[in-house]
Amino acid sequence: MTVENINVEAAIARVNDLVAQEKDLSPALKASLEVLLLLVTILANRLGLNSKNSSKPPSSDSNRKKKSKEQATRRPGGQHGHKGTTLKPFPGPDLIKASTVDRSTLPQGDYRSVGFETRQVVDLDISKFVKGWRAEILENQKGKRYVAPFHKDVTRPVQYGIGVKVNAVYMSQYQVIPYSRIEDHFPDQTGIPVSAGSIVNFSKDAFERLESFESWVKEQLVSSALIHSDETGINIGGARR
Q: What's the pTM?
């Protein structure tokens, strides 16, 4: 290691040799010199480290020469030569509204309709959908009642449907939205009150249903020769793992 053209390692080694050769030094003085040499070694190592010759990240290197950033000349949006995409019409629109020509504004003459020019407005309809179930009750002449069975998935007087559960699990597990914000989303957007506890239960139910699939995926990855994964290190307790 060199600091301003001084070979620090060679200098320290030479002093160590001189101290070892000096037989008349007192133990206290010799110990003091060894401590001082150790401190010099540590300080020299710290002084000579940078992002190029050590594992220090460039952001922590105060002596690093920073390149001046060039001012961006590109405009926002698609760049020149970029192949853009256009929203295409959807087949079978859910609602069709027609506008007709005000014939009173036309010159006199005979007109016949020859068709329509079409356009579409693609929108989103978020709404509450309540499905009611009724089970018929029969009663015989003795007053004994017989109740028709409900669907196997309808187990409570009022319960959440699969659409609510799927939407909650998607937002919490895929979009990683906090439970409290999902809890706010449902009454704000759909008028359906859903508690954070219910969202947790939805996620647990999804995990149990997918547990066998997860095990299958793990088996496939273990037996695969290539799994296309990347490993990124992280600092834990000051150590790189």
A: 0.55
Sequence ranges of the domains in the chain: 2-54, 152-223
Query: In residues, how long is the chain?
Result: 241
List phi, psi (to 5°) of 169.
-65, -40
Query: Which of 124, 126, 128, 133 lies closest to 192, judged by CA?
Result: 128
Strand partners of residue 3: 6
Rounded to whole angstroms, the Cα distance separating 172 from 177 reads 5
Question: What does the alpha-carbon distance between residue 227 and residue 229 come to, in Å, rounded to a whole number?
Answer: 6
Quick one: average pLDDT of 2-14? 69
Neighbours of 189 (CB within 10 A): 12
Ramachandran area for residue 196 (φ above 0: left; ψ -120 to 50: alpha; else beta): alpha
- Both tokens of residue 81? 């030569």
Three-state SS string across 33-82, please? HHHHHHHHHHHHHHHHCCCCCCCCCHHHCCCCCCCCCCCCCCCCCCCCCC
Per-residue pLDDT band for 77 (boundaries 50, 70, 90) equals: low
